Amino acid sequence: MSLALSSESLLELAKSRSPADRERLLLGIVELCDADDGAVATASARVQALLNSIFLGLVASAEREIRKRLADKLSTAEWAPPALVNVLALDEIEIARPVIAASPVLKDADLIRLLVEATVEHQIEVARRPNLGPGVVEAILQAGEPAVMTALAGNRSATLAPAGMRRLVAAAREVASLRGPLSRHPKLTNELAMQLYIWVGRALRQSLAERFRLDPKLIEAALAQSVQEAHGAAHSNSQGVIVLARDSQREAMEQRLIEKLHDAGQLRAGYLVRALQEGRLSLFSIALATLGRFEADHVQRVIDSDRPELLGLACAAVGIDRSVFPSILEMIRGLNGGRPGGGPEGASRAVGAFGPVNPQIAATAFRQAALSI
Fold first, then answer.
1. What is the CA radius of gyration of the chain?
2. Residues near 349 by Cβ (< 8 Å), separated by ≥ 6?
3. C-alpha dihedral over 63, 68, 74, 80, to 10 degrees?
4. How far apart are CA 13 and CA 23, in angstroms?
5. 51-101: per-residue pLDDT in tens?
6. DSSP secondary structure letters along 310-330
7. 186: which residues sit within 8 A by CB, 6+ positions away?
8. Which of helix, strand or coil describes residue 174?
9. Is residue 34 classed as helix, strand or coil in its secondary structure?
10. How far is CA 290 from CA 194, 299, 301, 327, 329, in A?
């Protein structure tokens, strides 16, 4: 059947109030989006008129899978109606993600509106969008949301001016997740590398020193200055108190982020994997405790223990798949000095925790076992 005939058929379906016809209509629109590019270009005006006249009234009640398929199909369509694309961009994140990432219809004003109105996960996807414009970059920097700034730091195609780069590096003093992507950023200068060097760990210091051939004397001077500043700030307190204050501030920021996601219904098991991929172990711990309604102290003690099977129980309780867990355990060990211990044998025990039990039983088992650590 030709595209024109398909459009006529869809218009006929649009006149029907039958729920079955409405579902056929939505599926037909999805299939229409799969048509040959040349045919779509020719019929785009008619398709847009069709969508504008009927779809916005249906999208709110459409099945999730249909909305998701439509978002996938329209994510690269230049002819897609802007109103429809914006509605899909504000949908739940799994539906919105391809639209935010690639839709040529979304303009800077639309993206800035998402940064203001949408969830943190939507904002992260905006920050990851290729070739991000300077207005959107400035809006991200102004908001100062750590997770969103971290996504921006990893977006090498974003239009990031020198002043913006300096603001990200300055923020890296408190936001540890920024340090890795910034150390690899092509716009990092020698001057900013020296500043970043003071705040990063040993592995990143070595990488920065090799990449920028940093002068050892300048490095020593910078480190001496940072120590002096720390002691100056610790005039009435010990250096340990300062470190604890910074850790407390970081944890409070991460706690607020997780609470935002949880309250918005956007905190899911996949976020745990993403936190570890970004090197944010404490964020993983807070998210796992929140998702499972566990004591935060219990989660931390299990992560630091030699019983990875308890970590497996916690992950099973929040819906993480057995096949994903070995990667999670490996990332945690890499970020936590090899803990939880137990080696390969412990890893096998941990995978065994994903037995034929439901999440409620796994959660109960975790809570009881964590008390003994």
1. 25
2. 308, 309, 312, 342
3. 40
4. 9
5. 555 565 556 556 788 788 888 888 998 877 788 889 899 999 999 999 999
6. HHHHHHHHTT--TTTHHHHHH
7. 156
8. coil
9. coil
10. 37, 10, 15, 21, 19
* Calpha distance 55→34 (Å, rounded): 17
Instruction: Give 275 or 140, the one with higher predicted confidence.
Output: 140
State the Cα–Cα distance between residues 100 and 119, nearest whole angstrom.
13
Task: Give the pTM.
Answer: 0.56
* Cα–Cα distance list, 88 to 53, 71, 113, 222, 354 (Å): 16, 6, 14, 49, 35
Residue type, 30: V
Predicted confidence band at 188 (pLDDT cuts at 50, 70, 90)?
very high
Q: Tell me the three state secondary structure of residue 305.
A: coil
Q: Could you tell me if residue 326 is left (phi over 0), alpha (psi between -120 and 50 degrees) or otherwise beta?
A: alpha
Q: Where are the domains of the chain?
A: 1-106, 115-237, 268-370
Name the residue with tokens 């905190």: 267
Distance CA 208, CA 193 (A): 7
